[in-house]
């Protein structure tokens, strides 16, 4: 059974750097890793240790081997983006540098990877690179790898769970100045011609070639399907007959032009024509595995005569009698067919009949429907629906048309990979599995997702506090005060050991056990504090929610943030800092100066505030998205 393991990398932990590069298939770009790899790691070419601090410390011969083009990626303490990345490059040998160190802004020991995508359609897949770096590892978080880039677009990402937004593209173009254009070849036929265009007695073929870049290296020709020979002088054809001369040219850079042909008919200078024409037939169309033509077959006839010339071509389909041939004969009736054909020249000579026998079958109905994909998750669950220790995800795909070709899955944004066996997830935390299937006609299903939570998995002890949030609901007056009563609801979730209990304190510092939503009816301003504890004993920092009941004149936020726009942790969202109706501005509700347990908890809080303000009409949908994006860009809770 296939087991997919996710690695949780604790902040500040010393992690050995690993570059795991599977053996490249034939034609794949070579990758050479420079850095001290731990025992058991592998690369696709020889490994050359180097200093973890500077490529200038390498031996002179190693520096000489380094590629002239150097591309550098850096990472910091952020899990949403790399600190710096290249966007363009030119094709050829390249040194890739990946640094995740204190010097690049990572002062908390956060691990990151630089992983090149080798499976997503539409991207180059010829560089298999996967570098894991940590500021406290043996290389101080700095690594180099030698690769060969080809024209096109590469996709890269951080493969560590929880870092799904660290992704980008590198566009590679041809190196400037390289000659990639083949020469242009022309042919000229000279000689005396009759009324039908045939050459009387002989014909002379002259070939010329031009190349505006590296110059012409050679010209070659092949006569009547023979081997190519060098062209050194004009080719003289002086025997009656029909000739096909194929020609091509090669430049100094090695570019060879596509073959071109010229046909020449030579007739005798005098004498009576007693030779019948030569007629050939060719059947074309799509063939199935049994050699039958699918849907229809085209019968193409051609005739040549070196003497008096072709007068007519005729065909007979399945014994119906000869008819004049003017265009390819289309045969689309299912079954076996025989086409007989002949040609007559101007002197009246008739060729021996030729024939072709073939079978036509009906074309299958085109498959335009993608496969149907379903999932089944199994495992022991607790009272909250979380899976204890592990969960097994089975993906099933069906296609009634051409049949299922491939099934793929993506675990926590790491990139799609082929699905071959049930997927076992046994790392504590929340996970998202995306899946899709492709049929044999190339139809791809819409991606589906399944979310699950693992508790008590094979991870280190749970040291992460739960995430808690609170909201107040009820009818409000024009000043935002809740009329008669306000309903308070507190929620908490924990991806590790699970939530044990929730507590709250209303208008004092005495915390009580929260068992469910409750109403606050006392008029006036209120301050609700709340917190959650998980089964491992981790406690959230206390959150505070302020509101008022049935007192229209009460200012719920007497000390208010009245800046013109909503500024979140130094990020100016540009959204007007409007009064929400009870004396509190939008910035007051965002509460960027509060004590937040994590950045994720703060973003979740701002999302709830923005959703409510949009529903109330205080902001529009665009301003809602702007507020949420500003919270994500901020460093609140980090």
Describe the structure.
The structure is a single chain. The chain folds into five domains: 18-173, Immunoglobulin-like (Sandwich); 184-267, Sandwich (Immunoglobulin-like); 278-361, Immunoglobulin-like; 372-455, Immunoglobulin-like (Sandwich), CATH 2.60.40; 467-633, Immunoglobulins (Immunoglobulin-like, Sandwich), CATH 2.60.40.10. Strand 14 (216-223) and strand 15 form a beta hairpin. The strands form eleven sheets. It has a six-stranded mixed sheet, with no helix packed on it. Helix 3 (599-616) packs antiparallel against helix 4. The relative contact order is 0.07. It is built from four helices and 43 strands. With 638 residues, the chain is mainly β.
What descriptors fit this protein?
Immunoglobulin-like, six-stranded mixed sheet, 4 helices, 43 strands
Over the alpha carbons, how many angstroms does the gyration radius reach? 38 Å
CATH class of the largest domain: Mainly Beta
Strand content: 35-45%
Oligomer: single chain
CATH topology of the largest domain: Immunoglobulin-like
Strand order of the largest sheet: 1-7-6-9-10-4
- Uncertain segments are 1-30, 35-66
User: Got a strand count?
Assistant: 43
Any idea how many domains?
A: 5
Helix count from the secondary structure assignment: 4
Protein name: Ig-like protein group 3
Keywords: Copper, Metal-binding, Signal
Signal peptide: 1-28
Region (Disordered): 35-66
């Amino acid at each position: 059974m296939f087991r997919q393991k996710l690695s949780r990398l604790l902040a500040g932990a010393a992690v050995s750097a690993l570059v795991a590069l599977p053996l490249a298939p034939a034609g794949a770009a070579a990758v050479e890793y420079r850095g001290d790899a731990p025992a058991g790691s592998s690369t696709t070419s020889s490994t050359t240790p180097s200093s973890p601090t500077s490529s200038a410390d390498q031996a002179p011969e190693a520096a000489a081997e380094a590629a002239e083009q150097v591309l550098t990626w850096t990472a910091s303490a952020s899990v949403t983006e790399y600190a710096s990345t290249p966007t363009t490059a030119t094709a050829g040998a390249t040194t890739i540098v990946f640094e995740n160190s204190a010097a690049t802004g990572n002062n908390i020991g956060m691990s990151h990877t630089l992983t090149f995508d080798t499976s997503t359609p539409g991207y180059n897949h010829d560089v298999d690179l996967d570098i894991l770096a940590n500021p406290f590892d043996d290389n101080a978080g700095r690594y180099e790898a030698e690769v060969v880039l080809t024209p096109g677009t590469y996709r890269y990402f951080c493969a560590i769970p929880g870092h799904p937004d660290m992704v980008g593209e590198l566009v590679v173009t041809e190196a400037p100045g390289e000659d990639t254009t083949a020469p242009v070849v022309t042919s000229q036929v000279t000689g005396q011609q009759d009324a039908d265009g045939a050459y009387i007695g002989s014909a002379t073929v002259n070939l010329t070639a031009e190349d505006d870049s590296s110059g012409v290296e050679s010209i070659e020709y092949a006569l009547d399907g023979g081997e190519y020979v060098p062209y050194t002088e004009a080719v003289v054809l002086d025997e009656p007959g029909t000739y096909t001369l194929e020609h091509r040219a090669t430049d100094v850079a090695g570019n060879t032009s596509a073959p071109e042909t010229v046909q020449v008919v030579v007739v005798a200078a005098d004498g009576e024509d007693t030779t019948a024409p030569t007629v050939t037939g060719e059947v074309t169309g799509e063939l199935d595995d049994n050699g039958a033509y699918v849907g229809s077959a085209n019968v193409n006839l051609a005739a040549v005569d070196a003497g008096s010339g072709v007068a007519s071509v005729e065909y007979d389909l399945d014994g119906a009698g000869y008819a004049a041939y003017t265009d390819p004969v289309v045969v689309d009736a299912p079954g076996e067919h025989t086409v007989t054909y002949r040609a007559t020249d101007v002197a009246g000579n008739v060729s021996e009949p030729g024939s072709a026998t073939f079978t036509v079958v009906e074309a299958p109905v085109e498959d335009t429907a993608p496969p149907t994909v379903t999932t089944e998750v199994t495992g022991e669950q607790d009272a909250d629906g979380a899976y204890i220790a592990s969960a097994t995800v089975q993906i099933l795909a069906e296609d009634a048309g051409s049949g299922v070709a491939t099934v793929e899955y993506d675990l926590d944004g790491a990139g799609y990979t082929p699905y071959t066996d049930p997927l076992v997830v046994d790392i504590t935390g929340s996970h998202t599995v995306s899946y899709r299937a492709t049929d044999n006609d190339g139809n791809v299903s819409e991606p589906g997702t399944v979310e699950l939570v693992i508790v008590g998995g094979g991870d280190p002890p749970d040291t992460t506090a739960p995430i808690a949030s609170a909201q107040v609901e009820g009818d409000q007056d024009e000043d935002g005060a809740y009329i008669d009563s306000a309903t308070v609801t507190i929620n908490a979730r924990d991806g590790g050991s699970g939530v044990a209990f929730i507590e709250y304190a209303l208008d004092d510092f005495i915390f009580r056990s929260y068992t469910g939503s409750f109403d606050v009816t006392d008029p006036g301003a209120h301050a609700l504090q709340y917190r959650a504890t998980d089964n491992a004993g981790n406690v959230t920092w206390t959150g505070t929610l302020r509101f008022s009941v049935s007192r229209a004149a009460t200012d719920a936020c007497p000390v208010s943030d009245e800046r013109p726009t909503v500024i979140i942790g130094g990020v100016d969202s540009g959204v007007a800092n409007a009064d929400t109706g009870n004396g509190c501005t939008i910035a007051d509700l965002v509460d960027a100066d509060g004590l937040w347990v994590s950045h994720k908890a703060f973003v979740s809080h701002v999302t709830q505030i923005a959703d409510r303000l949009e529903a109330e009409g205080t902001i529009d949908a665009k301003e809602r998205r702007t507020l949420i994006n500003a919270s994500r860009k901020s460093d609140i809770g980090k």
